[in-house]
Amino acid sequence: MEDARLLIWLQLPREDTAASEARRAVNGLRHLVGDATDDVLVAVSEVVSNAVRHSNAAADDRVDFKVLEGGGRVRVEVRDGGTGFSGPSAAALDLERDLDRDSGRGLGMVARMADDWGIDTADGTTVWFELSCGPAVDPWRTELTQALVDSALEALVTVDADGTVLDWNDAAAAMFGLTRDEATGRSVADLIVPTEAAAGSHRLRGDLRTNVDIGQSMEVTLVRSDGSPFPAQVRLSRSAHSARDFFHFSILDLSDQKRSEEASAQMLAYLAYLADASEVLASSLDVDRTLRRLARLVVPTHADWCTVNLLEHDGTIRRVAAEHADPARAAELARLLDAHPNEPDSSSGVAQVIRTGEAQLYAEVTDALLAETANDPEYFEITRQLQIRSCVIAPLEARGRVLGSISFVYTEQDKTYDSADLALAQDLGRRAGLAIDNARLYEQRDNIAMTLQRSLLPPYLPEVPDFDLAAHYAPAGTGNEVGGDFYDVFEVSATEWNLVIGDVEGKGPAAAALIGLARHTLRAVAFDHPSPAEALRILNQVLISNASELCCTVALCRLRVDEDGASATVARAGHPAPLMVRRGGAVEPLGADGTLLGAFAEPRISESVTAVYPGDNLVMFTDGVLGMRTLADNRLRAILSELAGKAPKEIADEVAAAVHQAQPGGLADDVAILVVRDAHVR
Amino acid sequence: MGEPRLNVTTSDHLGSTLVHVEGEIDLATAPQFERELQRTGPAGELIIDLSGVAFMDSTAVGVLARKSKQLADDDRRLILVSAAGAVRRVLEVSGLDKVIPVYADLESAARA
Question: Helices (DSSP H) in A561-668: which residue ranges?
């Protein structure tokens, strides 16, 4: 046999089951061998059985079984390692004479069926036979196959061994934008494989005969005739007819699937980000904005329109988002939804989901269903206009509480939701719920911080006769925590005022408590203890006996005004020196350094008195103003000197501006500034 | 290969013993086939229905030939039922159809 092609090559165990195994393999060739298959089956079975039963080969020797095809014939070779086969006698071949005798009959049957047969004993024993064969041809079969190819959803392309297109079905024409006539005769690689490097496309280049991916399903990038690439799943297979090789491409366009997967991934990534990014959702305004963005992500891949509703504190349901796949119809959607707001006690839809926390899938929304759930004809008409064909509603929930709901709606006839969509909506609902919950907690905390902070600073500065006052306060960070700086101004007597500025170590509730204690202690002791140094020593006692872990620094100034003029008595406990900015531009630090408070039982604190003249400004501040990362001492003095005699408000604003300017990335520390100017006309 | 590839059931059919065979009869299953045939009733005609046999080879031919001879010694008769296909082809090629009557279906076999 010339140009024979090996169809089967098996090594069979020398067991009784070998013949059955060989037959099973041959059965798979029925399409090639056609009507001769039964004869081949019988002959193969006989020859293999002989090799198993009669050979004198070793028991662990295997039977080599080959089926070849070529030139319209099928050839079977069965070889075993045995020797001494003499060939069937003439008597053995006379089948009818000794029908009940087992030996030899099988080979006799082979001889009758085969066109040619023989025994080769050169190397072991090989029994071979050949039979004419032809593919099974049913007259209707070709037409049926063609109809199947043309109706296939996959693009089916057949090429020869050189890759030249021989057949190109309707789906291929649609997928690649080339008709069968245009594609036929051209190189398949030129037509569908991108010229530049693309995912997996090298697997389709080169000689198809040596392609290692035959029979594999692979995801590759292909290209349409307009040059646009797209993801595809390709299965390459091989067949042979009349000694020619053919290759078949079965191609699925994965564009839609990938788009949908990407959209889902994008949405989930956004939600994962939301769950973490509590800082992003710092207010209810942020929550609304975020939910609108979420709704925009849902359309158009997962819904024709999408709404998000929140349950308000008063039990009403507020719609925060209504996004339509067609932006031009968003307004109409909002109008229709507004025309019939969700009633919290409704027994269906959004209200029901929010009340029960159970997600709902309405795979097919019919008029009958709408009529059942509508309370009145007007509502029924509105829901009809919303064109809801299929709908999923999932709760937004966190920590066991339902915060709202998200609805996906398809308005087009051919789209319906299933349980996978329901699961997606539920997942979205949980993640969005968590984000909302985080934002609300954050907002709540923010409110507490701001309320507390306000209670720790004087709500407004008191009127001090013949003095002008100004203060500036800026906490570092986002404002979510109570800062550590504080100041206070209060009247002690008709002629005496106390000015306080301080800085508590740390932030948050513990710092807030300490500020409260410091402020109220200083107010209380001021009446009995005119000496600022003494007042600070008492505060130190209080802090130590309070067993607070925190320390604080304070500068305390008692401003006294009498007939002789004004004076400032300053005591400092670990705090930067207040600066006296004389009307002429001189800048003088006040008070001697002292021990910070709350750390030592015997602090070293002294006080000093300075005369105050009209036009002088006393500037008190915390270390957020003066420091390595903010303003150098001489820089601050230069600024203040420039501002000599100006209004306290202007001085406070200018210093604050310089501090902010020195830290473009935001304040590293809280900033408090208190300025008082002698406005006497003397 | 754990499951048996041959299933033999025996019943009475209009006074004859009817043996219905399902599966494949070859080197591996022929001994079982022969044993089952030995267990069939001692008298009357024996009909072996091979219509449920997907494949059989020359060892099955040997079994059938021996059974036919054994029955003939007791003046009994063996009848086979086999339609067209691989099994019928084996009966023809082996020449067994020349010594044992073969019918295409059970009805014609029972009438014979």
Answer: 633-642, 648-662
Between helix A419-456 and helix A508-526 the angle, nearest 10°, is 20
What is the average pLDDT across A155-171?
A: 89
Of the given ranges (A471-475, A655-659, B49-53), which has the lowest mean pLDDT? A471-475
Quick one: average pLDDT of A17-34? 85
Higher pLDDT, A620 or A412: A620
Residue type, position A620, single letter: M
Q: Which residue has the higher pLDDT, A674 or A260?
A: A674
Instruction: Measure A370 CA to nearest chain B CA, in Å.
Output: 58
C-alpha A322: how far from chain center: 23
Tell me if A99 sits within 8 A of B72, measured CB to CB: no
- Going by the DSSP 8-state scheme, the letter that residue A507 receives in this structure is -
Selected residue with higher pLDDT from A367 and A317: A317
Output the six-digit token pair for B29. Answer: 């299953």
Give helix then strand counts, H and E, for chain A: 20, 25
In this complex, do A105 and B57 lie within 8 Å of one another by their Cβ atoms?
A: no
Q: How far apart are the first and last CA of chain B?
A: 39
Check residue B46 and give its pLDDT.
Answer: 92
Number of helical H runs and strand E runs in chain B: 4, 5
Residue count of chain B? 112
Distances from the Cα of A470 to the Cαs of A417, A474, A605, A644, A675, in angstroms? 64, 14, 27, 15, 5
Structural tokens at position A225: 């005739």
DSSP assignment string, A659-676: HHHH-TT--SS-EEEEEE
B25-48 tens-digit pLDDT: 988 899 999 999 988 877 788 999
Q: What is the pLDDT of residue A277?
A: 42
Q: Considering only the beta carbons, identify the residue of B66, B69, B89 that sits closest to A42.
A: B89
Question: Tokens at residue A373, please?
Answer: 């759930």
Query: Residues A186-233: pLDDT tens digits?
Result: 988 888 888 776 666 777 777 777 777 787 788 888 989 888 888 899
Q: Cβ–Cβ contacts within 10 Å for residue B99, how many?
A: 15
Q: In this predicted model, what pLDDT tens digit does every residue of A600-655 receive, in sequence order? A: 888 999 999 999 999 999 999 988 776 655 677 888 899 999 999 999 999 999 99
Residue type, A582: R
Interface test with A, best of B26, B56, B96 (most A CBs within 10 A): B26
CA–CA separation, A478 vs A449, rounded Å?
Answer: 11
Q: Chain B interface, mutation test: which of A14, A39, A109, most B Cβ atoms within 10 Å? A: A109
Q: Name the phi and psi angles at A31, rounded to 5.
A: -65, -25
Burial pattern A184-215, b for ≥16 Cβ within 10 A else e, equals eeeebbebbbbeeeeebbebbeeebeebeeee
Integer Cα distance of A610 and A570 in angstroms: 8
The order of strands in the sheet holding A305-311 is: A317-324, A305-311, A401-410, A390-398, A360-362
In this predicted structure, the answer to whether residue A45 has a pLDDT above a threshold of 60 is yes
Nearest-by-CA chain B residue for A40 = B86
Do residues A590 and A620 touch, judged by C-beta distance below 8 A? no
* A290 within 8 A of A435, measured Cβ to Cβ: yes
CA of B75 vs chain A CAs: smallest distance (Å): 18
- Cβ of B22 under 8 Å from any chain A Cβ? no
Phi/psi region, residue B68 (left: phi>0; alpha: psi -120 to 50; beta: rest), is alpha
Report the relative pairing of strands B102-103 and B78-81 from DSSP bridges: parallel
d(CA B92, CA B112): 20
> What pLDDT, on a 0 to 100 scale, did the predictor assign at position A280?
44
Strand A317-324 vs strand A305-311: parallel, antiparallel, or unpaired? antiparallel
Task: Identify the closest residue of chain B to A48 by CA–CA distance.
Answer: B27
Looking at residue A278, its pLDDT comes to 39
